[in-house]
Amino acid sequence: MTTPTWSTRSIDATVALRTATARFADEFSGTFGTETVERFLISSYDQLALHATVTKFLPLMAERFARQRLRAVAKLEGVHLDGKPAVLFLCTQNAGRSQMALGFFEELAGDQAVAWSGGSEPGAEVDPAAIAAMAEGGIDISGEFPKPWTDETVRAADVVISMGCGDACPIFPGKRYESWDHLADPAGLDISAVRPIRDDIERRVRRLVDDLGLGSAADQRRTAGNTSRLLPDRLPAGRLS
């Protein structure tokens, strides 16, 4: 396998990635050296570039992806042990089901856990109908992007949730695995057809949060008198205002 280098990228991408390398060197000082963060940034960029149709924001997405991977490695190597459970949501394209599940989990668990998502065959963008359906409950996943699962994130996860990726989903010993393979795929569906899938995912994620012993961050905000971004009782489709 050829080691990725700067020479195969555009000038703009190279400048952006070198700048990110300098920031990462400070962010992960004492944990990873400059060569390591540079290698993860380059490989993250290359993996995302394989499926990207728009490259303008690739360096920024690569930075986010690389940070996720580096934090997973830090957890694996025991240099960042905060006691928080890590949950990984997997589907085929990482464009619909796993992104909605991630959105619900981050909203419900807050900073009590770490959550990631990935796909075996990442799509070009997050499904617009999934974005719109989540927005109806006040959860914004429009800033997310499809990305592949990596060995680091799977190995660092305490819980792995698979949604339709079948044999392509990675299996490592010592993990808690749950298969949500009967969830319908929202790809190509309009928002009215995506809503039942969204609601099913929300119910499953709520059960998962309860099983992990995590108090709902949304419920805590509601108790404190703050407005939750989740609807306490899902209104019928078309009745949101």
Question: Would you write up a description of this structure?
Answer:
With 241 residues, the protein is α/β, with parallel strands linked by helices. The chain has two domains: 10-81, Corynebacterium glutamicum thioredoxin-dependent arsenate reductase, N-terminal domain (Helicase, Ruva Protein, domain 3), CATH 1.10.8; 82-234, Rossmann fold, CATH 3.40.50.2300. The protein is built from eight helices and four strands. It has helices at 11-27, 34-49, 58-76, 97-109, 128-135, 151-156, 191-211, 217-223; strands spanning 86-91, 114-119, 159-163, 176-179. Strands 2-1-3-4 form a four-stranded parallel β-sheet. Strand 1 (86-91), helix 4 and strand 2 form a beta-alpha-beta unit. Helix 1 (11-27) packs across helix 2, helix 2 packs across helix 3 (58-76) and helix 5 (128-135) crosses helix 7 (191-211). The protein is globular. The N and C termini lie far apart (53 Å). 41% of the residues are buried.
Overall shape: it is globular
**C-alpha Rg (nearest Å):** 18 Å
Please give the share of residues in helix: 40-55%
Please report the total strand number as a whole number. Answer: 4
Mean pLDDT equals 87
CATH topology of the largest domain: Rossmann fold
* CATH-defined superfamily of the largest domain: Response regulator
SSE succession: HHHEHEHHEEHH
Low-confidence blocks of residues? 231-241
CATH class of the largest domain: Alpha Beta
User: Beta-strand level of the residues, as a percent range?
Assistant: 5-15%
Strand numbers in spatial order across the main sheet: 2-1-3-4
CATH 2nd-level architecture of the largest domain? 3-Layer(aba) Sandwich
Number of domains: 2
